[in-house]
Amino acid sequence: MLEIYLIDETDSINDEIQQLVSNILKHAASEEGISGEAEVSVTFMSDDEITKVNAEYRGMNQPTDVISFALEEMSEGEVAIIAQQGIPVVLGDIIISVDTAEHQAKEYGHDINREIGFLALHGFLHLLGYDHLTKEDEVKMFGRQKEILHSYGLER
Question: pTM of this prediction?
Answer without folding.
Answer: 0.90
